[in-house]
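=== RUN LOG ===
request id: a7f3
mode: sequence -> structure
chains: 1
length: 290
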Amino acid sequence: MSDPTYTPPKVWTWDTESGGRFAKINRPIAGPTHEKELPVGEHPIQLYSLGTPNGVKVTIMLEELLAAGHSGAEYDAWLINIGEGDQFSSGYVQLNPNSKIPVMADHTTDPITRVFESGSILLYLANKFGAFLPEDHYKRTEAVNWLMWQMGSAPYLGGGFGHFYAYAPEKYEYPINRFAMEVKRQMDVLDRNLAEREYMAGDEYSVADMAIWPWYGAMAKGIIYDAGEFLQVHEYKNVIRWTDQVGQREAVKRGRMVNRTFGEPSSQLRERHDASDFDTKTQDKVEAAE
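=== RESULT ===
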């Protein structure tokens, strides 16, 4: 059967929830909904986030910087529960007027520097510490190319395919087909690229890999949206090879745990304020102590 047709009114009005998993937090206006200041820890970098793919990009970067010896990248990672609307507090909106996660505050500058949008945070940290972004003109440009590719492509994967396939209150053939086609095209773009090089931008691990891996690595493994069989992700052999290679990095393993609120309790470090938290404050240990 074809989808029922819809004739848009002359003027759209917000009179009902949009439906679906995130209906309660969707609204057509910006700005705060309540007054609440953000907590501030002791470290130079303050991160306010959640362990979604966009959040994981940044915690991987911070853990990679620390593993590479950049002590100035020590950070506090505060949990932002987007389902409860934490991103609409006055303190959060002051740092990120777009009310999306993640957002970062660099307390080493005067005044404090706010950095929002995950791609911007990755570039900021790469430039600040001179790491994970090649110095060579061509290699650097290629890494930025792929970083920008991810920023432009992932909304079709998440807000497009993921929403209509997994989260929408009803399933309709047209949007699912439309976005499934686009996600498979994107996976083919990645697979062809990785057939000729070790990492996304060439022979160097970079911010491009950190940005793409949480989204498309999870897709290659059939983890997100439970859509692996539907999209036949096993076909993308080069993406799977790269996904496994990046996933073996110790900093990546740590980064994907931070601000995580789902999965095995031992994989969840809901807030990170010290490196020792990985050993002492994962959710399984927190629950055992209660």
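=== NOTES ===
The radius of gyration is 20 Å.
The beta strands are 45-49, 75-79, 103-106, 113-116.
=== END ===
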